[in-house]
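Researcher: Here's my situation. A collaborator sent me these components and asked whether they could plausibly form a single complex. I don't have experimental data yet, so a predicted model of the whole assembly would be a useful starting point for our discussion.
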Amino acid sequence: MLLPLFALLAAAQAAPAPAPAPKPTAAQLAAAAPASAWGAIDPQDLLLIDFADGRRSMIWLAPAFAPVHVANIRTIARSGWWKDATVYRVQDNYVTQWGDATEKKPPAAGIVPKPPAEYEWAWGAHGVAVDNPYRDAYATRTGFTPSGWAVAGDGARQWLPHCYGMVGVARDLAPDTGTGGDLYTVIGHAPRHLDRNIALVGRVIDGMAALSALPRGTGGGLGLYEDPKQRVPIKRIAIAADLPAAERPAFEYLRPDAPVFAATLEARANRGGPFFTVPAGATDLCNVMVPVRVVGR
Amino acid sequence: MLLPLFALLAAAQAAPAPAPAPKPTAAQLAAAAPASAWGAIDPQDLLLIDFADGRRSMIWLAPAFAPVHVANIRTIARSGWWKDATVYRVQDNYVTQWGDATEKKPPAAGIVPKPPAEYEWAWGAHGVAVDNPYRDAYATRTGFTPSGWAVAGDGARQWLPHCYGMVGVARDLAPDTGTGGDLYTVIGHAPRHLDRNIALVGRVIDGMAALSALPRGTGGGLGLYEDPKQRVPIKRIAIAADLPAAERPAFEYLRPDAPVFAATLEARANRGGPFFTVPAGATDLCNVMVPVRVVGR
């Protein structure tokens, strides 16, 4: 008896006759994709969080969808406003949130203090490389932009979905839209009811465990750390483009307009490998995750 | 500027004219439900995990859906087979798994070594108190049984969905179905592609953070703890009915056949409170979560 839930390809050993070639997984398809299928992520769009314990989380910013909020975030990062930033909220099956735990700090100089509600836009305004053929609980139409983002909508309007690892801007009650000084990421089942109610500005593409595996807070029914000593210190939040070239991280995404992308989508809906006996025949939008890879690690 | 993502009801203060009564949330509806809306959970169906650090996770077992696997689990708990059990796998956005990390221990005496594949059954075999009106990415029909479980299916067959906190039986490649000696729970976005491929046997209803907030493992691309010292020791796994009465935990669930349940479902689809400006108009099955409460804490 063995137990790892996925005994990857372990079945292939010592078969008496050659087995049919196993159907490739989405990860295998991505790994075999040509270089032309991968697009570079602009280092201006990479926000890194260095924790005091040495761990790093990397966020891919989405300036096309929330330009004012993302411009604010770059300004805040460059201003030093986040020098005392901490993670101060971790609510199980919901969000991890970081920024200014005191809620008292004046906004960073040079930001737009009241950004517009960058929550939705015209369907297709950012292109749709692949229409997703599978049903979605919240949206009648979903797909993937050539720029590498899952989108949801109704054919008229479009928005980013609150999938695992997506990053949004904490806000007060409307009409407040948040400045970008406090951010959160989804650490549980996609809270898609937040879609169109809050600005999404990016996605955690590396080092997610530094945000998702933190102790849960107990304050206010919101996962706030009740004792300031519980807060997780952040050493630096910076834009990758501002780092010396030798230290600058680099990432690529699998382009949804590359032919291989549709195959990876189908592979997520009907999984390959020896483990699955009943194919799902579909996939939730938030179970797709546009593949991302680090360059040169 | 303030930051808690949900400033619960904070808007109500000092309004110049009386505001309309805010729409109640699902939690408020459940809290106001009459005693008759709550059903007791049989202490034979409560599996508790006591960790060496004093934390406890509580699992509600589902014997109606997987009777042989659940009978095995009770036998294993009572046999002492789990006395050296540890958590040995934590894969981000996927599962936490526990049991016999060595994979070498002979099965517990008295169990059914090869249970049937208790993965699906005839639609409605366990009753459907409430049909869920919202779309589902994986199933054409979903609902809630009077016994308190979300179910997915196609009107002919029915199965339990892999939502956050659901507990399943780790298995080897088919035809293996797992004994119940090694269990996992979902700690990320619902991996519904596992539905009908594996036996689900319960749901974590309390102490989820003791399983979800653990350090992620790095082994085999599966989140296995590579160093045995990383494994999280478990002091005891027991059935609540076997504890002395004074120590026995007790829980209740909101009955899906109680009139209030449909209102809580609608409240999950169109959230009340001052935060939301655009109602979702729908909810993912895995964002509903049948309410459960502890008795007498």
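Model: Some features of this prediction you could bring to your collaborator: Helices of chain B lie at 26-31, 67-79, 209-212, 259-269. Chain B touches chain A through 77 residues (CB under 8 Å).
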